[in-house]
């Protein structure tokens, strides 16, 4: 865990609190987010910086009937093992340090939910909640154009995603970024009629969080100390 940061500048305090308040939340109330609140969040996200101000994010917000149909389509594809990702994701590709952190995160999450390691069925049910958007009334899907090796565009989308998540937190909302949804990029494009050339990086289920659910109230993951991430050169 990083040590708490104490600031003497009162202007810094709200940001300091907000950035720690934001967490990946995985249980939601069914109440939809009012349109004006949603627009306010999206206007905030629009202020994200990007390379040469290209603003390459292509955001799709899915709610109501479309949300239910999308969830059903993803679940049908998952049942027959038909994944259509645009980008790879394999835990085995990660160097040992990062894989160890991922394992720790998973273990802490299942512990908070009271699910033992060997209960594969319960763990699968928890994983499956990705496809029901954790009960959230909305899901945001982050698409991007293909440019070069895609890495720099993906960086811009990551920045956009964090601005979106921080703004959700600032509005009393919450969200969970989801690579899991990216496994169904092809299906999502088909269901929503999105251009083939638009590639999906990740999704964010979002809404008003249910803070009584153990996934939100018991579970909270920390961070590595600064020395593991930052090198100072002088
Ligand atoms: C790009 C991205 C993709 C993620 N994909 C998933 C996912 O598919 N399912 C999930 O439950 N959490 C997912 N997460 C959430 C991470 O597990 C979470 O951010 C991390 O454990 C740190 O916890 P915190 O966000 O609560 O601070 C994702 C996070 C990011 C940034």
Automatic annotation (TrEMBL):
PANTHER family from the UniProt entry: NAD(P)H NITROREDUCTASE YDGI-RELATED, NITROREDUCTASE
Entry GO MF terms: oxidoreductase activity
The organism's taxonomic lineage, starting at the top: Bacteria, Pseudomonadati, Pseudomonadota, Alphaproteobacteria, Acetobacterales
Keyword Thylakoid: no
Family: Belongs to the nitroreductase family.
Domain Nitroreductase: 19-208
Gene3D superfamilies xrefs: NADH Oxidase
A matching Pfam family: Nitroreductase
Organism of this sequence: Formicincola oecophyllae
Listed cofactors: FMN
Alphabetically ordered keywords of this record: Flavoprotein, FMN, Oxidoreductase
Name of the protein this chain belongs to: Nitroreductase
Keyword Manganese in record: no
